[in-house]
Amino acid sequence: MDRRNIELKIFGLIAGMAAGMILLAGFALTVATRHADARERDYEQTLVGNGLRQRIEEIQTGLNPYVIWDEAIHKLDNRFDQAWASQNIGASVGGALGYEAAFVLDAADKPIYAHVAGKDVSSTTFDRYAFQASSLVNDVRAIESDPKKVAALHAVHKSRVELVRGEPVLITVSLIRPDLKARTKGPRGPLLVTSTPVAKIMVKAFSERFLLRDAAIAVVAADAVDAAVAQSVLGRSADGRRIVLRWVPRRPGAELLRSATPMLAIAILAAAMGSFLLFRTTRRAAKKLLLSEAEAKHLALHDPLTGLANRTLFTDRLVHAHALLRRKPGHIGVLCIDLDRFKEVNDTYGHDAGDQLIREVARRLTAICRDTDTICRLGGDEFAIIQPDTSPAGAASLAQRVVDGLSGEVDLSIGRAVLSCSVGVSVVADADQGQAELLRQADVALYRAKEAGRGRFAFFEPEMDAALRLRKSLERDLRAALEHDELTVAYQPLTDARGEMVGVEALARWNHPERGEISPGIFIPLAESCGLIGPVGAAVFRRACYDSLRWSGLEVSVNVSAIQLTNPDFIDEIVATLAETSARAETFMLEITETALLKDGDGVHDALRRLKRLGFRLALDDFGTGYASLAYLRRHPIDKLKIDRSFVASLPGNGEAMAVASAIVSLAKSLGLKTTAEGVETQNQMDALVKLGCVEFQGYLLGRPMPAEAIASTPSMVRVR
Ligand code: C2E
Ligand code: CA
Ligand code: CA
């Protein structure tokens, strides 16, 4: 997913959430507002409803003096008096009380007096009201006919709002009754029917009493609903419509909402701003996340120390190069590069220096290669290059450039290191050959380059495979042999000029379960190149320590590889072995080669001094084959030189060999060192060496390497003539 996409998603989410919250709050507020408003309306309606009933009662009560009156029975029922009616009903009820119309009905419900709009009018005017009043009249008569009800009531009134000629009026029918002792003619009394427009008597009064806004009388359809107004039903028209008092109710919810609106606006603004800020921080976080994802991706595919491709990316590119080869014929080259003696730099100068060197190598490789090449650090000091679209000549040229580029001195913060490398090259034109195979072949070629002496490159050749396989299997077997303590030690006598044994040299032996005896000339270099020389040397030394305890007065020589000397733990291990076996350092002569001194470095020099301090003596092995530099002999605490057997072999016939041997002996003498001649096979050689002044001898003539048990019982083999 790309960044825009993620941003859009985050934005959508936050905006959606904010909008949702605002909507929800808005909805809740609206519901609450509506609810509050509805409750207020209901309340007002109930209040007005009660008020209405009260008002009607008031109106009715106002009529009582006129309808509970002996004189009215006399003048209206016993004997109708038009003038009395006009004065007491018309002028009082219609005039003083303010009724629009007032009628008197006789016991038979026939109108006998009518007063409308301030004037006496013909009784027939009642016809306008007859229909609307009829049910009220019936109701009153029903009460009148029930003596119990009449007795319970002080006055009998029935009122209702009716539509008369389109105008809502309150019609009240009241039974006229005596207040003292008057009697009606018949069983029924006369009735007073009054009518007054509702608007006049109610709207104003209610508006004032209940503070109603825009109160008005209206005639509405029965099912009419209007949420904006409140209404109280006053009555019903003949056609079923409702006569109502309606007004605009107070809306506390809406008012609250209105007064809260500025606050709400601020809250919404704040929410929007908050969302924006949230979006911004989230976007930043997401950006960081994506960056770190890219970083992680880079880390997953690159070596952290050098920034070069790692094995994963390398394999990927190799697969890719193979795919290209299928489409476009050509060659792919793979170079495996191994730094020569990198481990020594690491061991001598420390890991920081090692890292520095690796980085420098990466820098140089990057400068040597083209952009299309993939440079990879496979691990440790191993590098590889994929050269797509090349030729064998192109690969060879690159390999040479790498060998040249990675040779010479390198300045490290801690000192100078000498850099060189070996390169194995594999070139294929065949897309069907697996990419893993390509890398393996380059690796095989690399082994060959190293074997051939390092600082060079080698192309893969099919016969290398067999040799490498053998080497690999030997390496595996050597490891197993060490684990199972299968290496043994043979001892070869060292004698004085009379053939008297004065010492022995411990020589490692490996009897391979299938291959038989394997020469140390093979497995010692193998152990040195695959990092096993430490364990091999330690095993031999431990064995020699134990064996030395059997012999008294015999000096035991033990070979120490140059690689062992550069190991910082070497001396501690030696000391531990001495302690473990109770052997004495003074018994031992440690044989080192000149190449060990060549490695030089203060590390080796210090190691030699410490060994000397521990009581060991030191011999320079194979002397004469290397530099034979006098400076080394002076500098290091050497006790003895061993003349290499290649010189001894050509004695005494070869004049040059005689000269070298003679020179070595006199050199040793002048430095106060002993000399031992190696590889003495004949009596003639022995005699010649004795003549030259050599004092110690080793060779088949004097004794072959043999098991420790055989040493104790060995008599002197040769007599001096
Ligand atoms: P080196 O230290 O020069 O050991 C002497 C070698 O010469 C031995 O070979 C020995 O068998 C051989 N030799 C002795 N007398 C004669 C002779 O009269 N004629 C001939 N032609 N050879 C003779 P070996 O045992 O095969 O060892 C070969 C090399 O392996 C040794 O050479 C030494 O460099 C190395 N080596 C053996 N054991 C050890 C060990 O424990 N540690 C280390 N670092 N190297 C060892
Ligand atoms: Ca030796
Ligand atoms: Ca030797």
From TrEMBL:
Asked whether the UniProt record includes Oxidoreductase among its keywords, one would answer no
Example GO molecular function term? catalytic activity
Q: Which CDD domains match?
A: EAL, GGDEF
Please give the SMART domains that the UniProt record associates with this protein.
Answer: EAL, GGDEF
Which residues does the UniProt record annotate as the domain EAL? Answer: 471-719
Pfam family of this protein, just one?
A: EAL
Which InterPro entries does UniProt cross-reference here?
Biofilm_reg_signaling, CHASE4, EAL_dom, EAL_sf, GGDEF_dom, Nucleotide_cyclase, Rev_trsase/Diguanyl_cyclase
Read off the Gene3D superfamilies from this record: 3.30.70.270, EAL domain (3.20.20.450)
Arranged from A to Z, the UniProt key words for this protein are: Membrane, Transmembrane, Transmembrane helix
- The UniProt transmembrane annotation reads 12-32, 260-279
Enumerate the PANTHER family for this protein.
Answer: DIGUANYLATE CYCLASE DGCE-RELATED, DIGUANYLATE CYCLASE DGCP
This one is known as Diguanylate cyclase (GGDEF) domain-containing protein
* Native source organism of the sequence: Caulobacter vibrioides OR37
